[in-house]
Design a protein that fits this description.
With 57 residues, the chain is mainly α. The protein has two helices and no strands. It is elongated, with a radius of gyration of 13 Å.
């Protein structure tokens, strides 16, 4: 996994988690859902890159 892709995945997860928690706390359900989607995208990106690393010989 390249360092830049790894950083992007980590940033997406952290930002998504923060947005989700803050939005949920202030009652913004739509924004909370967007934060959850961003967090899920970060997790998917991490898993994709991890899978690519596993296929390299």
């Amino acid at each position: 996994m390249s360092a830049s892709e790894k950083a992007k995945a980590a940033v997406e997860q952290v930002v998504g988690r923060a947005v989700r928690k803050i939005a949920y706390a202030i009652g913004r359900r739509t924004t909370a859902a967007k934060g959850a989607a961003l967090e899920a995208r970060g997790k998917a990106r991490r898993l994709k890159e991890k899978g690519k690393d596993g296929l390299r010989f």
